[in-house]
Amino acid sequence: MPERRPFSLLLVAPALAMVLALFVYPLGYSLVSAFTARDGEPTLDNFSKTFDLYGADIVFTVLIVVVSTALTGMFAAAIGGYLVLAAHPIAATLLKWLYRWPLFIPFIVAAQCMRTFLAKNGMLNNTLDTLGLVDAAGLSGLLDWRGIIVTFVWKETPFVALLVSGAMAALDRAGIEAARNLGAGGLRVLVEILLPQVAGVMTAGLILAFVTMLSVLSVPIMISGGSPTMITVDMAFRVNSYSDYGVANALGVVSYVIAGLAAWVYMRRNVAGEGAQ
Amino acid sequence: MSEGGEMQRVSIILAALAGIVLGQLAAPQTAAQQRATLSLVTAGDQNMVDYVKDYLGPMFEKDHPGVTVKAVGTGPGDGGSQKIYEKLEAEKNNSSWDIDVAVIHQKAAGEMVTKGLLARYTAEVPTAKLVTSEAAKRALGADVDGYVMPMFNSQTAIAYNTEMVKAPPSTYAELEKWVQQNPKKFGYNGIKGGMSGVSFVVGWIYADAADADRLIKGPYDPETKKAWDKALARLAAFNKNVVLTPGNAGTLDMLNRGEIAMGPVWVDMFYTWQADGKIPPSVKLKLIGPGMPGQPMYYVVPAKAANAKLAGEFVALATSPKVQADGIVKRFNWYPGIDAAAVRPQLDEPTWRKLFVDVTPADLSSKGKPFPIAPYFNDILESYERKVQ
Prior knowledge:
The complex is a heterodimer of chains A (277) and B (389).
Chain A: H1 5-34, H2 45-85, H3 89-98, H4 107-117, H5 123-130, H6 145-169, H7 173-181, H8 186-214, H9 218-223, H10 231-242, H11 245-276
Chain B: H1 3-31, E1 36-42, H2 46-63, E2 67-73, H3 77-90, E3 101-104, H4 106-114, E4 138-139, E5 142-143, E6 149-161, H5 172-181, E7 187-188, H6 195-208, H7 212-217, H8 229-240, E8 243-244, H9 247-256, E9 262-266, H10 267-275, E10 283-286, E11 292-300, H11 308-318, H12 321-331, E12 335-336, H13 340-343, H14 349-355, H15 361-367, E13 368-369, H16 374-387
Parallel strand pairs in B: 1-2, 1-3, 7-8, 11-13
Antiparallel strand pairs in B: 3-11, 4-5, 6-9, 6-10, 6-11, 6-12
C-alpha cells in the first residue's frame, strides 16, 4: 500500500528522533570530544594520556570481563543442561525457580550486598568459620578483582541461562535419547550434543553479558578500592575530579573498540554459520 | 477493537483533556496563595537532601506562607557539584534559571565564579557578617568573596579502634612507621573512591612538601610536582602494607567489622555513623600532624536565579546561629559554617563538647588545613595516578 508510506514514516519518526537525539548525537559528540584538546584543536593527546595512565586498567578491564563472561557461560550451560537432563524433577523445578532471582536485582544493589557478603569479616567468611570449615582470622576478604568477578557472574548468569535453557528445551529430544541409549553420561550429552546445537544462542547471550559488564560502574567502584581498576571508574574519575571529558571520552572510545570486537566476533560467527548452512 | 471500546477510549481522552483545561483555569486562583517554589539543588550525600527536606525546608515554608521548597540531590563529591555547574552552564542563555539555591564544593565554586554563573549576593544577607572563615573568601585559590556562604565546615581525621591501637600515631611519619609494624591494619580508599582518601593523600604531600603553604595559597608553579617523587615513592611502599577500601563508607564499614584498626574518615560521617550504632564507641578520632585537609560546602545563588530574593532569605535562615546550632552541629555533626563563637551560646554544653572531644578546637586551628589550590590539587591527584598506583 504505497499511499500509507508517508504515514508509516510519520509513525516511526518519534522513535527515530529519539535514537538520533539520545544515542547517535551523543555518540558522535563523545567521539569528537575524544580527539579534541581543551582549546578546541584536534589532538591525539587524550589517547596518549589514556594509554599512559590507564593502560594497565584497560588490560585489567578486558581480563575481568573475559573471565566473567567465560564463567557465566559455564554456569549458564550447567544450569541449562541440568534443567533439560535432570533426573530429579523436584530439584529441576527448584532450580528453575531459584536461578532467575538475580535477574531482578540491579547491579548497584548486588554490589552493596556483596560488599558485606564478601568482606573479610563478612557473611561468607563468618559462615564458613561458624561451620568450622576455616579460620576467619587467617582469611582475606574478596573485595578486590575477585569480588568484581563474583558479582558479575552472579548477576549475568541467570540472563544467559534463561536464553540457553530455553534454546535447549526447544531441541529435539531424540538426539539426547539416542546418545543416552548409546551410553553417554549427562556431562557428555551436555558438551557434545546440547551445547553445539545452542552455540548461536549462547554466543548472543554471552556477548550481551560481555557488553553489559563492560559498562558497569557501580560494581567496580563499590567492591574494589584498589588499583588497577575498571575503565568505567577511570572515566568517572576524569570527569568528577578534573572535569576532563577529553580523556574520559578517549577511554569511552577504547570501550567502544572492545565492545565492537566482541560484536565482530559474533557477526563473523553468524556469517560463517550461515555459509555452512 | 469493538466500536464501544473505541468510544470509551475517546471519552477517556476527552475527559483527560477537560481535566487539564480545568486545571489550567483553576491555576490562577491558587497562584495568589502559592507564591513560588524555591528550588534547591545540592551536591553531597543523601543526608544533604534530607537536611533540607526534613529540617530546613519546612522551617522556611512556615516563615513564608505559600512558598514551597523543593530539594534535589546530585550525588556525592566533586562530581555532584560538577553536575550543578554543567546544568547552569547549559542554561546560560536562558532568561532565568531553574535553580534558586545550590550547595556546592570548593572546586566547582571557583570555576562557577570565574564563568560568571553565580550572583554576588552575600552583601544582602544579614548573617554574612557572622562568617569569619578564610574559606568564605578563597576556594582552592579562586576568589569567591561575596559569592558564597559556608553551610558547614567538615574535616578529615584518622579514626582508630582503641581496642586494637593503644597509642595511635600523631603524625604522618609515625603512621608510616606504625603501618610497617602492623601491615594490613590501616585502610584508606585511594583517590578514586571518595574524598576521605583524597584528603589523606593530600595530607601526605603536605607532610613532605618543603613549602606546604604555597600549595594552599599559590602561586602555582608546574615544576613543583617534581619535588614530590620521593614522597610518592614512599606512599607506594606504604600502600603495599595497607588495605584499599571501597569508598568513604567502605573505610567506616571495615572499621566497624574490625577488619582494619585505623583509617581516614570525615568527622561528620564518623559521628553520624557512631550515633546510629554503626561504629562501636571504642573507635575514636585523631587529627594527625602536620595536618589533614577539610573543606566547607557553600550556599550559592545562581546569577539568574528565578527567585533570587527568596534565595537570599533562605540562605539567611540557613546560616542563622540558631539553625547552625540545631541543624548543622546537633543533627549532622558538622562544624558550623559561620563563626563558632556565634553558634556556641545556642547550644548546651554536652552537645558542644561532643563535637570537640576527640578533635579539639586547638587541633582544628593548627592541623585542619584547606585543600590545595586547584592546579596543585590536580597535580597531586595525577601524580598519584602516575606514580603510586
